[in-house]
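Class prep. Write one:
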Amino acid sequence: MDYTTKIANTTFDHLFINAAGVYCQTAEQLDQIQEAEAVAAVMTKSATAELRLGNQEPRYAAFPDQHNTINSMGLPNLGLDYYLNYVLKSHLKRPTIFSVVGLSQTEIVANLKKLQASNYTGLAELNLSCPNVPGEPQIAYDFQTTDEILKQVFAFYDKPLGIKLPPYFDLAHFDQIAKILNRYPLAYVNSINSVGNGLVIDPKTDKVVMRPKDGFGGLGGAQIKATALANVRALRLRLRPEIKMIGTGGVTCGRDVFDHLLCGADLVSVGSQLAIEGPTVFARLEKELEAIFTEKQITSLDQVCGKLKIF
């Protein structure tokens, strides 16, 4: 199977990327993704202007038997300069996607201006969807602010830029956010980030498993697949064809990948299962996906991508 996919100025030989936040905080972790089989590109940790420690621990819990996770990381990262230095290395053999975040509109703009002024020409991703910073709302739920930020950003940023979105739960919200996004020359939309503010209780202690935010955290893994597919599908139907889709959420097996493709994803991002299984997950997923293609006699991605059947 030829997995070649292109987004803006970047060509990918496979379908999989790591979700921002998983196996990407340090250069060593990024290198592990670079070296893994079946990887399309390496996503950096969402970078704030300066190093950030994130929330108190415990801030992550996994339930491998259910393929589920909950986290309240709080954007720990080593700062924008650290990741910029990494993506500018000449020996990298995979494409990179530079994830940018900010705790304010001013910081977001400043970070992207720094990226604009740099020698980095690859894809960047603006993360407007982190649910785990205490006291900070998810920007992309505020449609007016999202519009204002994108208007300000695209007044100066002329390199390929995608956007990471939180999950939406109402059809009217899909209409509203798509109307905004279609105004701008976005390279892609990445949907979804974790489902914010879930709560998990430890049955042995009757305590929440997360220390930050009194136990509230972002849900990931198999439990969010239906929501992720709905968002990918709804946005694909509403966005301009030129805006590509990265599907994220609920990917634990090859069938999950296939479903994201059916809903319109051009690439598929893996987060929770990568954290549980490690970088070998990509090769396993590709092998399982190839078995599905063989069974269904599919020889081209064009036969799958966006081809979800309805009654």
